[in-house]
Amino acid sequence: MSARLKLTLSYAVIVVVSGGLLLAAVGLFLLRYVPDTVDFFPNRGDLSRAFVPVASIVMLVLLAFGLGAGWLLAGRMLAPLDRIGDAARLAAQGSLSHRVSLAGPRDEFRDLADVFDSMLEQLEAHVAEQQRFAANASHELRTPLAISQTLLEVAEADPDRDVDALIARLREVNTRAIELTEALLLLSRADRKTFPREIVDLSLLAEGAVEALLPLADRRGVAVEVGGAPAPVLGSAALLPQLVTNLVLNAIVHNLPSGGAVAVRTHSMPQAVALVVENTGDVLPAPLVATLVEPFQRGAERTRGDDHAGAGLGLAIVDRITQAHGGTLVLTPRPDGGLIVTVWLPHPYPAAPPA
Q: Residue 135: which H helix or E strand, with range?
């Protein structure tokens, strides 16, 4: 039976049982005070013969009323569920743009419809993001392959080709393809959130990343400063170093052509720890900053050299790793140019809040 039929029968049974109990109570209490005699006055038998047929008719009327009114009432109450079911069927067919948009007073059905609409909205955004990611990833992976094919075709047609230059160029293109593939695998690993967790100090990771990237910073004329308090977090010993390295690398690469600066700081709060990476650079408009965490978003207005073109996955990887650790990534443009990136992560030993 459908839910509507179940509700209808339930309403009818309640109405009939309630009416039957009422009539039975009236009949019993009425006949209780009538003497059972054979005089002129009506006795208990006369009243029973007069009352039972009328009570039967009333019960039939109550049954019909209970079924009809119950059917209409059940249909009206279940109408929101029908709309939610229609939206779910459309979603199952691949249409995620449909919304229930249930009007009326806020009740359980309205809350369910709003939650369902929110879920559809998130699913639509997620699917659109995955489609863009797949298209961009295919394009990015195709580029080094196409370049390699072109180099080989040109070398094949040129009898006086420079083999050493060809090998060097192919090695460069192959290295870029490998880096892009590893970045995509790292994104997938962060999304799964299946990794062992241990205590990792972000301040030590920051010092290590700065030390490793110092030659690149010197070559670009960027001064790097690192410091701050110990910032222990509970996370992946493989993903968190990649997070810090990507932030420091982005800060060095996307900087001023000369005379740039990068500051890396760690902070420890009672409930959270923070990693702040601040760099100089061109003035970034707010709409551009809001899109920098999207995969393959390089930020065309940002300054960078030819020795590190990148694939636009640096901040996307940072954002995914931050989310996988239950944290928050905040991007703030500097008024004088450049960017401030703050990573908030939960403290492994949070202090009790003040009373």
A: helix 108-157
